[in-house]
Design brief:
This protein is elongated. It has 30 helices and nine strands. A hairpin with a 2-residue loop joins strand 2 and strand 3 (44-45). It has helices at 17-29, 68-75, 86-90, 92-105, 134-137, 164-177, 181-210, 214-246, 256-267, 276-295, 299-319, 324-343, 347-367, 372-392, 396-416, 421-438, 444-464, 469-473, 476-488, 492-512, 517-536, 540-557, 565-585, 592-605, 607-612, 614-633, 637-647, 653-661, 665-678, 682-693; strands spanning 6-11, 40-41, 44-45, 53-55, 77-84, 110-114, 138-140, 146-150, 156-157. The longest helix is centred in the first third of the chain and has 33 residues, at 214-246. The strands form three sheets. A five-stranded parallel sheet has the order 4-1-5-6-9, with helices on both faces. A two-stranded antiparallel sheet has the order 2-3. With 699 residues, it is mainly alpha-helical. Helix 13 runs antiparallel to helix 14, helix 14 (372-392) packs antiparallel against helix 15 and helix 29 (665-678) runs antiparallel to helix 30 (682-693). Among the domains are: 6-178, Toll/interleukin-1 receptor homology (TIR) domain (Rossmann fold, 3-Layer(aba) Sandwich); 180-250; 588-693, no CATH class. The chain starts with 5 loop residues before the first strand and ends in a 6-residue tail after the last helix. It is 69% helix and 5% strand.
Length: 699
């Protein structure tokens, strides 16, 4: 039996009091798995319960020494738990408590738990987000003062991007018991499984008892409710914790049996008889099942799961219409269904869902205007509507308005949370969408301004977080977009500069993860762009060199089953067309008509795949322009007229692309080239004027 009154002394900043109280209660209520109780570990015999914890509930006085109560509690505590955050790191009292405890018990019995901030940030430019107090980062000297010898505290971490709340607390408890985390988690899972296995026998016993005595029937019914809650808790556990283990190794298929049983279980329920708590578990389970099917590329199955989730959250909201949490849960269901409709190109259904999602988010903000999470939801809602307007409804001006609302909300949040890197990344992403909208109706200078703001934010994030591969790879998008913008403006040397930077980042990312063929494909796309820029600038040999490198990538990657057909088609005809044009300039192409006809026929044989990719649609226009050019050079004017008649028909690829692309400068430039080959029409003059007025080149 322990000689200590307290299992641990909880040291924390009083700014973290609310979370500290939750953790305190969770630890004192924790029941140790029975199969571990009585085992001897490096710190003693494993008890049935963790015991009592000391957490000072009062602000410490403005004095040099700790209060007598705190000093006494330190001496009566077997461990010290330090709740680490920027506030705790800045608290002289937290630091002093750690020093005094280390004097009594040494380093071994101090267990850090990270709530927020970053460990060792004091070694970087972001010193203000340091979460470890100095007494955690450095050893205590024999004299009892803080030394300059660094220590390496092994901390549990409840931040979402790390262990998460559940796993972080489990790590802390494992340290308090002196057992391994895997051993503790395994025992808890076994305990859950045993509970679920008891459901059937308990239910049968309940049925027998129901036939005998009313009192016993009532008792059995209550037990059945408890067992049902335990069963649903196990389902949620398997769809979260187990999924987290299987997803990194690409084995989500293992969850199929769990998903099937869960669906059967929930579908057998009468929603009118289900409690609010059980209904909430039901909706969460179907959300998780939908996400799993989504990630496996099974859109129809995912849609069914999201529909079931929406059915559950709608019932909950109807029962408690003014509960913000119920509104939020239903909003998630509506969003998932809207996103499914968007993926299925059902613009009408997507629009209805996204507008409803925005209405629910606006209601949350109206109810709790200072709730940051609700403001994030509203920003996301405006952004989703903007994407729908831009990509599905061809309403770039309306989309730009929606994105501006998103930007305003996120910038206001950034003033309150200046160190939130994820929020900064979302602001950069918003600028990217603003630029995409402006590209379809605005001036080139406005597009560039938005892209430069995006690039500036992402560069700053990468410089301050050089080990974060996500921030590094996100640099590719704005560099690529700026390179394309310069191509549209006819500023090919500027385009080359941006493409070279994009290729360099893509190569670095690809080299660091050689097994990731998507990264290799991305590198190939950047090099195709650079080859096009060299070609446009008249540097044909440099263009050819890049293209040879791309061919190597295509041979390595495109034959693999994971590469989608439309990506294969795009790679194929992009490389083929550019190679044809380079060879023609270098006088290496002998049979222009035959060659371009072969390429065009191959593109058209893959028209469905080619047309899905926006770059593919524009390449189709270029292919037709080149074919007309080659036919004219050969004097085959009757064939030219046949191509022109097709392109002018209402069923042609030209009209299909025009309906999608509208005022995009890349399309307009490709169309200008095609119309120039066809005739010197009034449409051509209007197109040329529109391009020049918006700061884009026709060549």
């Amino acid at each position: 039996m322990s000689n200590y009154k307290y299992k641990a002394f909880i040291s924390y900043s009083h700014k973290d009091a609310a979370l500290g109280e939750e953790i305190h209660k969770e630890l004192e209520k924790y029941k140790v798995p029975k199969r571990l109780v009585g085992k001897t570990t490096g710190i003693g015999v494993v008890p049935l319960k963790l015991g009592q914890f000391f957490r000072d509930r009062e602000e410490l006085p403005v004095a040099e020494d700790l209060t007598a109560e705190v000093a006494k509690a330190l001496g009566q505590s077997e461990f010290m738990i330090v709740l680490c955050s920027p506030s705790a790191a800045a608290s002289r009292w937290v630091n002093k408590e750690i020093i005094e405890f280390k004097k009594l018990r040494g380093e071994k019995y101090v267990l850090p738990l990270i709530l927020s901030g970053e460990p060792w940030a004091s070694d970087t430019d972001d010193k203000e987000v340091e979460c470890f107090p100095p007494a955690l980062r450095y050893r205590i000297s024999p004299a009892g003062t803080l030394s300059h010898i660094r220590t390496e505290p092994i901390a549990a971490d409840i931040r979402e991007q790390s262990d998460g709340r559940k796993r972080g607390i489990q790590k802390l408890i494992a340290g308090l018991l002196g057992v391994g985390l895997d051993q503790l988690v395994e025992r808890e899972l076994q305990r859950k499984q045993r509970r679920v296995m008891a459901i059937t026998s308990a239910s049968i016993l309940g049925m027998i008892v129901m036939g005998a005595l009313t009192y016993q029937a009532t008792t059995a019914r209550n037990a059945a409710e408890r067992h049902r809650a335990e069963a649903e808790d196990l389902i949620e556990f398997m769809l979260t914790d187990l999924r987290d283990k299987l997803e990194p190794v690409g084995r989500l298929d293992v969850l199929d049996a769990v998903g099937t049983k869960a669906v059967d279980y929930y579908n057998a329920q009468d929603l009118d008889d289900v409690s609010d708590d059980a209904m909430g578990r039901r909706s969460r389970a179907f959300h998780l099942l939908g996400q799993i099917q989504d990630r496996r590329g099974k859109a129809i199955e995912a849609g069914k799961m999201y529909s079931s989730a929406q059915q559950a959250t709608a019932v909950l909201l109807a029962r408690d219409p003014d509960n913000p949490q119920r509104i939020f849960e239903h909003a998630q269901s509506v969003f998932y269904l809207g996103n499914q409709a968007l993926s299925a190109r059902d613009s009408e259904a997507a629009s209805v869902a996204m507008q409803e999602y925005k209405r629910l988010a606006e209601r949350l903000v109206d109810m709790e205007p200072y709730n940051i999470e609700w403001q994030k939801e509203l920003a996301y809602a405006h952004s989703n509507i903007g994407t729908l307007q831009l990509l599905s409804l061809s309403q770039p001006v309306a989309a730009h308005h929606s994105y501006q609302k998103t930007l305003q909300i996120r910038q206001n949040l950034a003033l309150k949370m200046p160190e939130d890197n994820n929020l900064k990344a979302k602001i950069a992403d918003t600028y990217a969408w603003i630029a995409d909208a402006l590209l379809r109706f605005g001036h080139a200078d406005e597009v560039e301004e938005a892209r430069q703001k995006e690039l500036s934010i992402l560069r700053d994030l990468h410089e301050k977080n050089p080990k974060n591969k996500v921030f590094h790879s996100e640099l590719i998008a704005p560099l690529h977009a700026l390179a394309l913008l310069k191509m549209y403006q006819g500023k090919y040397k500027d385009a080359i500069t941006y493409f070279i930077q994009a290729v360099a980042v893509a190569k670095e990312i690809s080299t660091a993860d050689e097994a990731n063929f998507n990264k290799k494909m991305q590198q190939g796309y950047m090099q195709i762009g650079l080859a096009k820029a060299y070609y446009a600038d008249g540097q044909y040999s440099a263009s050819r060199t890049q293209l040879e490198d791309v061919k190597t990538i295509s041979q390595e990657v495109l034959g693999r089953a994971i590469v989608r057909p439309k990506s294969r088609a795009h790679f194929d005809f992009s490389v083929s067309l550019l190679n044809y044009r380079i060879n023609k300039e270098l006088k290496l192409e002998q049979d222009n008509i035959s060659k371009i006809t072969d390429i065009l026929d191959r593109i058209l044989s893959n028209a469905q795949q080619a047309f899905v990719v926006k770059e593919g649609r524009r390449t189709l226009l270029l292919a037709y322009a080149l074919k007309i050019e080659a036919l004219r050079e050969a004097g085959q004017f009757s064939e030219v007229e046949q191509v022109i008649q097709y392109l002018e028909s209402d069923t042609s690829v030209l009209h299909s692309i025009a309906a999608r692309e509208k005022q995009h400068p890349h399309y307009m430039r490709s169309l200008h080239k095609l119309l120039s080959a066809v005739s010197n029409s009034e449409q051509l003059k209007q197109l040329e004027k529109s391009l020049l007025d918006r700061g884009f080149s026709t060549e």
